[in-house]
Give the backbone structure.
Amino acid sequence: MDFGSILTLGQTALELGLISSLTVLALFLSYSMLNVCDLSTDGCFTFGAAVGAVVAISGHPYLSIVAAMCAGMLSGLITAVLQTRMGINSLLAGIIVNTGLYSVNIAVMGNSSLLNMNKTETVFTKLKSSLSSTAFVSQYKIIIAFIAVALVILFLYFFLKTRLGLAIRATGNNPAMVRSSSINPVMTTTVGLIISNSFTALSGCLMAQAQKSVNIDIGSGVLTVALASLLIGNAFYSGSRIALRAVFASVGAIIFRIVYTLALRFNMPAFMLKLVSSVIVIIAISAPYIKSQIPMIKRRLANRKGGLHA
Amino acid sequence: MLEIKNISKTFNPGTINEKQVFKDFSLTVKDSEFVTIIGANGAGKSTLFNAIAGTFITDSGTIELDGKNITLLSEYKRARRIGRLFQDPMLGTAPGMTIEENLTLAAGRGGWFSTINRQDRERFRETLSELKMGLEDKLTKPVGLLSGGQRQALTLMMATINPPDLLLLDEHTAALDPATAEKVLQITERIVNKHSLTCLMITHNMQSALDLGSRILMMDEGKVVFDSSGEEKSKLKISDLLVLFKKRSGKTLDTDRILLS
């Protein structure tokens, strides 16, 4: 493999990593801060991709970003209302919305499961043409993805310091305390899910526009991949500085993509991606638990060795 | 002033576990009154607090706080005017957040998008220094690193940083070691006196029920069986309480958990 193709691979990994890290940041807010596992993530990602694509195809490249984020907010609002106002378990609420969104997404794409954006003007093609005479022309995808990630991290950094942001963190940390501080946990959960889903939809929208097509399966497995990335990021930094945790969440997404790209180079079939991400999530979540059980297992084994007399 | 008029509450109505805890229960607590509440397990002490704080809504009757009817208000809305501490020191604070972040949530000043400024920090430092636990120098440390006693003292500060119309203390020192419990009780007394708070305190420690406050209530099976205040209260001894309880409820006070001294 020559240096040129390594560079291209690295660049693709970075692009995809940055774009999917927007979903990781969404989970950072909903899973790490609010302590809600939002199972509507896959559907919401596709929803953002579909809405963004349809608006872009109709000739509004900038509006498509806004429209996708609004779609995500709507999806987040519904998930939140189901679990806070209608007595539906939070995991179930996510699954229900995810399932419902499948039909909605096909309807949005005009009763089709595939939309092509080869000739569509998007933020990516806009930047590409305005950079056409400079040395950065081939980096246009990275530039846009990087700006989006930087803006979202900056937003989270400031937002999580405000009283509303603190209230959202406290809701995930100790709901009883939130109620006794005269803050409505229904409100904090709703706001948190609306914001996190807008990031998920943005991620889907940029992913579709970067690869110039949407298909109905674009979001399948996104949640597990993003969770794996989040946990990889956590392994590097899990301290108390919120901004750093957000940065490492995105770094986790990039690392995940790089490892995945390398694995593909060593002839791992592409369909293995989801199994690998599942295994990463299993290991990352179960390791601390299993580690805590080891002393007990050792004692039991020792006891058994002692035989009848033990 | 807290006015509870004729409240009733039955849990699990129509089932085999049906249990009526209150029937036409009434209680009036005057402004700045510090009431200690004692009673055996299951007497309805904590349930009374749950009713006042809005953890559940009563079946009938009214609850008024300073002339405002709060009977149907949800728990978080009542929390604006009612501060509450539980036995478990872990319940009142968010362990993953810093001391100043916890205080900010409790202080509730400024809008939703306001952030902690130097003025807030100054105020927090000043408030915390009253505890004499050195917490004022740990504003940016996570609360999870504090001891149970420190957390309970911090919770007390959070509940009273904006003096509430009513403070509910539900055995808030029972989970602490005796020395720390004593310290937290002293702080409690100081804060309650400083803001002349209206306060209800459940305790299993008969001595502190007699030492603290201006009025004592003894509860049994959802009723107040003994109510004493002023000079009469100050003359009471633990032995008097035990005799009174037996006379009024027809049984001996469950002394497993009750601390006689």
